Amino acid sequence: MGAFRHTIEIEAADGTSFESVEALVDTGATYTWIPRPVLERLGIEPSLGRRLQTADGRIIERDGAQVPVRINNESLMTICIFGDPGSHPLLGAVTLEEFGLGVDPINRRLVPVVSLLM
After folding, report:
1. Which domain covers residue 97, as residue numbers?
2. Could you write out the three-class secondary structure of 19-50?
3. Gyration radius of the chain's alpha carbons
4. Could you tell me the end-to-end alpha-carbon distance of the chain, in angstroms, rounded to an integer?
5. Fewest C-beta in 10 Å: which of 4, 15, 19, 57?
6. Is 17 a member of any domain?
7. 82 neighbors 34 (Cβ within 8 angstroms)
8. DSSP states of 38-98 as a string?
9. Is residue 14 part of a domain?
10. What is the per-residue pLDDT across 43-76, written as a single tens digit (0 to 9) for each?
11. pTM confidence score
12. How many domains does the chain have?
């Protein structure tokens, strides 16, 4: 699949503002990954932890939280991982599924999908 980025917005904990980030769409990543400094700047505090496997097979532990995210004018709470400072934001599979979005790799865009009820 061709890699591409999509703008997502992270809402501040107090609900007063959003911060836009260009996230790499990564269907191989379970969760959305936002650099810790962005989440801290928005007043979001960790409320959970997750063990994650990296591309090179290492197991790491990172903080996470339920975070209000806006994609294409729709807002939902989704798990975001507090990423390392200086890392790039990733838009992961859980968030894509929660928003009912799939990936069009040819045109490098997100597309609405029909969810399964089975």
Report:
1. 23-104
2. EEEEEEECCCCCCEEEEHHHHHHCCCCCCEEE
3. 14
4. 27
5. 57
6. no
7. yes
8. HHHHTT----EEEEEE-TTS-EEEEEEEEEEEEETTEEEEEEEEEEPTTPPPEE-HHHHHH
9. no
10. 999 999 999 999 899 999 999 999 999 999 999 9
11. 0.93
12. 1
